[in-house]
Amino acid sequence: MSPILHARGLGKQVVSGERRLDILSNLDLEVFPGESVAILGSSGAGKSTLLGLLAGLDTPTRGELTLFGQSLPSLDEDGRAGLRAGRVGFVFQNFQLLPTLTALENTLLPLELLPGDDHQAKAREWLTRVGLGERMNHLPKQLSGGEQQRVAVARAFVTRPELVFADEPTGNLDRGTGGKVIDLLFELNREAGTTLVLVTHDHHLARRCDRCLGLDAGRLAALDRDEVEA
Amino acid sequence: MSHGARGGGGLLRLSLKGLRRDLRASDVRALFVALALAVAASTMIGFFLDRLDRGLTRQAGQLVGGDIKLEQGKPFDSDLRRQLEEAGLTLADQVDLVSMASRDASFQPASLKVVDGAYPLYGKVRVDLGGGIEEVAHGPSPGSIWIAPRLAQLLDVGIGESVQVGQSRFPVSGLIEREPDQSAGFGSFNPRLMMHLDDLEATGLVRPGSRVEYELLAKGPPQAVARVEDLLARLERQGVEIEDVREDRPQLGNALERAEKYLSLAGLAAVLLAGVAVAMATRRYVDRHLDTAALLRCFGASQRQLTQLFALQLLWLALSASIIGALLGLAGQAGLLALLTRFLPLELPPPGILPLLLGILTALAVLVGFAGPTLLRLKQVSALKVLRRELDPLPASAWLVVGVASLVFGGLLWLYSGDFMLSLGLLLGGLAALVVLWTLGWLLLGAVLRLAGRFGNGAGGAAQALRLGARQLARRRQASLGQLLAFAVTFAAMAIITLVRGDLLTTWQAQLPEDTPNYFAINIQPDERDGFTDILNAGDASRSALYPMVRGRIVAINDQSPEDVVPPESRGDNALRRELNLTWKEEVPTGNRVVKGSWFASDAAASPADGTVPISMEDGLAERFGVDLGDTLTFSIGGADITGEITSLRNLDWDSFRPNFYIVFPPEVLERFGHSYITAFHVEDGSDVPGKLVSAYPGVSLINVEAILGRVRELLSQVTRAVEFVLAFVLLAGVSVLYAALTASHTLRTHESGLLRVFGAGGRLISRIQGVEFALLGFTSGLMGALLAELAAAGVYIGWLDLAPRIHWPMWLVLPLGGALLIGLIGHALSRGVRRQTPMASLGLLGEA
């Protein structure tokens, strides 16, 4: 089986003043369809930067990177966006809901870029599945943090993507609420057979994935169960 | 802040530091620009109006010959002179009379102007003293005279040769090209002869019974003129004729007054626009400072300290913007005046200090009014917000924001217009219009949302962009409504200023059309009439009708002595003291309008019952005499008395440069008396028609009024140019508001387009979506702006400018389409950067590695 996501020798360097800073260097990664992969790292390790690169939201300084068999660095911004449309879902740490749109409208947003005439029904269905059937017309500020993240989860799955990226999905939530959101995320992931790439510093969360990788000093290394326990 | 209370000095330093850091932020820059613009607009227009007003008064004074002109049939006594001089006025004496000037055997009637050493009080005389035409600030010296070139031609004299005036002989020392106070000579049709007052007695021309007008001209600052107001009123009651340029600026009527009102209105529009920009920029400023405020609360700052801190910061901002704005305003008015005076020599006094103070006051008022309520949010921030981002204080109530802004703007309106009821009316009308617009906008956005769903569901292409763009706009209903209203107000302000300008210019052009007569011809004898008109018709002249003219004096009103019948203030009226020019005409003269009664029936004069004939009277004179339809006037004409009954009152335009008559008779009544004809005509520069007429009919007097006409046109074109300049400024201010508003919504749009990118939208699609959104925003606000402008224009026309309101259909097309284009372009240009950003940057994820 060929990997859905493949990185080789990936590096990202930023220039800060006169200093060049390697956030990621010489990084290899393969993610296969249907599996869930956790990328563990402490704060500032470069997790979000890596996620941005993998999803084509940002460009690497060097290295190879393919998504769905397409080389990302060879595509321009629009090409990368086109590759994501309908096939990639996202869950962000800070939810990234548009404050002026209702829960339903926020969920509709990625669907509206795609053809079809049952968008409303799909969005309603997914909001109902995440337990927000009664709060579809609420604005984000009228929802709790956990509810907002559930809207974000519904929005991530509404296009039935092949791959979902989650960036510290519980980072802004308390333990109880975060746990429920994660349960939901894994449940939906399993039901839909989606590939999940999850970035976190939370070992408990990471342990629920099929595979764990540690990000340290800009490089990735596979971690076995014991290491994750620690 | 760590010790809870920070001293005033510390707060001062902190506020300055904060402002310095803040200058990097686009909203602070927008605030700064908007405030500077408000100050620049009000000071520029203030400075300019102040100087223009004083300059125009001076120029009008030049036309009259002084700020005040007293006129009577006998010399003025020394007591009156002393009183005027003590009030701070400079005086000049002048005597006007008509006499013969002769050389050898040729005699010509000349209009004598006898001046003293103080002449002219204003302006300069253009005269050829032998070395070509030059401008001098004096009249002829004693012992010599200056004459008009026409008189020189008629008498065949040149400089250095002598002319006999009365019992004296004077060498001609100058040929007068133009007198600064030429309008004074409008009534006298003979060519000018100017001499010194010292020489008058020797001529022996002033004898008991001779028709001599004594004039006393006074010049001085407004305060000095104000000091003698009572004195002038007393003199007027005694029969002295008084002309005060501040009250009756000649010829221009209310054109100038309208221009000044227009400029004030434009200034206010610019201030309103700046206010809208301030309100928009403040929202973003506050949003951005909520975190800072929360942190400061964490560190122990009290609400009061926070308020003081931000108030101080904004005060520095307002003051520095005021200084820059005032400098801009100063430069603007200087540039404007330089532009004007390059074409036209209008001497203006230096700028005063008042407009500057008014400008700074305006900036502070705009800041408090348009930013105040929004800023109050900052002090309500909870320290917990540092930990929980969602704890933002509620946004300021839209009604509070609009209410306070309206109150402040109403105050400014009052300050600038000086009319409380009008300001209140405009303000209440404006608020009512805002409520209507708010509702209308709400409904329109709802309709857009419903319509958007019908643009198919296919991906890609224009339909998708249209659907998504419309949805984005309509779903953000609250925010979009705010922008809609701001843009509608902006478009309306721009439209009103443009509309009013157009109507003003049309009114002015109608007042003095291209073919306004520039020559008067009088003394055309009945047997010369046909030949004279043949020459006119053969040439390029366009002319008004030929009017017969008979001179007659009013000897009775309703069979009583006129002095006993007319109101006291009219007893000295020229129309009673002199012979009037009477005419007859079958139809209503061109440019006249019967306002009361009816015009003569076709057989009116054929059989006058009881010897009374119908007459038509000018409405102004009737009002001055206190007479109406049915009253009778008796005229003494060539030794006979004729009584006429007023059967109609006419309104006529004295500024029209056409022959105008107080009294018109029906045909046949006056024909038996000796009469001549008068007409006015227009010829192009360099036409040979006047030359032909002079040589064919030497007895006819031709009076060239081109110079006076030129003066009036000059004034009108000066103010027109000022109006154009100010219009450009207002339009610029409008565009800057659009810019500020679109900048303010930048964050939101960045976020949106970043998310769309993440979900897979291409740059082209995002660009189209935003294009649709901006264009729709522009279109809808243009529509609402047109409605608002129409309402406001009607109010301004009726209440302020005294023009008739009308519907401006083209605006209903131009504003929506222009709005769509303008906002589409600005918005598109502004969001270029956003479209080029990586989604990581757009979503603010870069800092979270």
Brief sketch in words of this structure:
The complex is a heterodimer of chains A (230) and B (849). Chain A is of the alpha/beta class and 230 residues long.
Question: If you had to describe this structure to a student in words, what would you say it looks like?
Answer:
The complex is a heterodimer of chains A (230) and B (849). With 230 residues, chain A is an alpha/beta fold. Chain A has one domain (5-229): P-loop containing nucleotide triphosphate hydrolases (Rossmann fold, 3-Layer(aba) Sandwich), CATH 3.40.50.300. Helix content of chain A is 33%, strand content 28%. Chain A is built from eight helices and ten strands. Chain A has helices at 47-54, 77-84, 103-111, 119-129, 145-157, 175-192, 203-207, 225-229, and strands at 5-16, 19-31, 36-40, 62-67, 70-71, 88-91, 163-167, 195-200, 211-216, 219-223. In chain A, the strands form two sheets. A six-stranded mixed beta sheet of chain A has the order 6-7-8-3-9-10. A four-stranded antiparallel beta sheet of chain A has the order 2-1-4-5, covered by helices on one side. In chain A, α6 (175-192) links the parallel β7 (163-167) and β8. Chain A is globular, with a radius of gyration of 17 Å. The mean pLDDT of chain A is 87. Chain B has 25 helices and 22 strands. In chain B, β7 and β8 (168-178) form a beta hairpin. With 849 residues, chain B is of the alpha+beta class. Chain B has a six-stranded mixed barrel with strand order 2-3-9-6-8-7. A six-stranded mixed beta barrel of chain B has the order 14-15-20-17-19-18. Chain B has four domains: 1-64 and 265-418, no CATH class; 67-244, no CATH class; 430-516 and 707-849, no CATH class; 542-682, no CATH class. Chain B is 54% helix and 16% strand. Residues 1-7, 183-188 and 248-253 of chain B have low confidence and may be disordered. In chain B, α8 runs parallel beside α20 (706-744), α12 (420-452) runs antiparallel to α22 (763-801) and α13 (461-475) crosses α22 (763-801). At the A-B interface, α1, α2 and α3 of A face α13, α14, α21 and α22 of B. Chain A: Keywords: ATP-binding, Nucleotide-binding, Transport. Chain A: It comes from Modicisalibacter ilicicola DSM 19980.
